[in-house]
Hints:
By secondary structure, this protein is of the alpha+beta class. About 15% of the residues lie in helices and about 30% in strands. The strands form six sheets. A seven-stranded antiparallel β-sheet has the order 3-2-6-5-4-1-7.
Amino acid sequence: MMKRMILLAGVAFAMTTAKAQSNDYIVKTKNVKKTEAAVAITADNVVAEEAEPKDFMGKNFRYYSMCDWKDGMRFMVIPEKYDLLVGTFRDMVTNKEVSSGALRHHIMVYRGHEDMPNGRVHVNFFCETNNKSYYYELPSGTFDDYCYGKMGVPTLAYLGDVDKARELLMDQPLITRTQFFRIDTDYDGDGYQEVKYPKNRLVTVKAIGVGTRSFPVKIIVEDENGDQFYQNVAMSKTNCGMRDDEFDVDNAKYLFEGSFEFTGAEMEVSKDIKSYLNKTIHNKFATAMSSKGAGKQRDVKVPRFTGFIIDEINRDKNREGFYTLTLREVETRRIYYKDITFNEDNRGPREEYFGYLFAMGEGTARNTTLETRTAIREGRVIPGMSMEEVEMAVGEATSKVTTSDGVTEWMYPRSNSILVVQFDEDGIVKKAGARALGSGAANTKKRRMTEQSAGGQRMTANGTRSGSTISAQ
Length: 473
């Protein structure tokens, strides 16, 4: 019996495919497998220049719970695999269940709800595609009880969001905010391939159509190389069937702001500052940056002439005119973060000004082994590292001393030990390891150095004390 149901669902799906292709809500990326390309309707009235992307979603894409649905709201039937076996709608004339596959890509117009004599509630629709009337019977409870949840009506993608997105976004330039998108692989079906593109790529909206019930707006964009890819996103979340807290981690890209960003209005950074994205730069002076090693966030001192690629530029919400650069080190590929301003009048310390600290290009290349680059990425110290590479891996030492036999030692306090790094006379690591904090006289000295670290002091190589420094965590 189950096999027969699946077969019937497949037949219904195939019969409705041809009809669906004449539906201008169905759009595809170019080079999809068909000789005839799909064409999307474009709106004449695109977004006005004075629009404020800061409030773009709130102003233009209102969430409608079922309690707020108005007569005439339009939806499209987008069944998933489960919906092909379990029907959603019944014919209002015959009261018989109708296959969701047979209704695929049909447009349903909301016609209110009614309480039935048997105590059930019907949510009524008129189908624009075949001029028939259907209803969805609530599984339980009153309409008021049901409508305050976010379950909605299965299979239905809200077309109001699609129409509004067409009106506002067609031909608009956007910047990608995720690496993960899709391309169509099947013109006559829903086949797609996952693809990766760099973040912060400038793209143009080429077509907007219907996506899925959960993510109803399919936005097709094209980059400067002519490559097209798309994302299905939830704009208002009307009838999407997902809770707000489900739009995080991997699902964050299915919100508009998780995949795209505007290039104008409150994003004044777009034309000037955003032009630095994906550029290669180097720091002219040694500077402190945040990084991650061994799974922990730490501050490290980065030597001058270190080359970086700017992966991201994000506005600093706590300081007006400041931005956080996400920097990928050219040689080690390790990620660093630096807060800077592009306006010299905003800065405090001189190194906060981009033009003072950075210059274009890679700077002086350093020769490092694969093993060393791996250790730096993981925040470890290994023999053979230079002093600069040690600082890149674990930050600036809390204490730097030279022993009586001429051995240079850098010390890094940990929670219950001290990392001791020993250098030879050429400044190359010959040994690195942790020493436990004990009760002996030697360890008393080490505990004292740990306490000095907490007070923001360190011992320099010549035995004098200096002011506060950034210590590794």
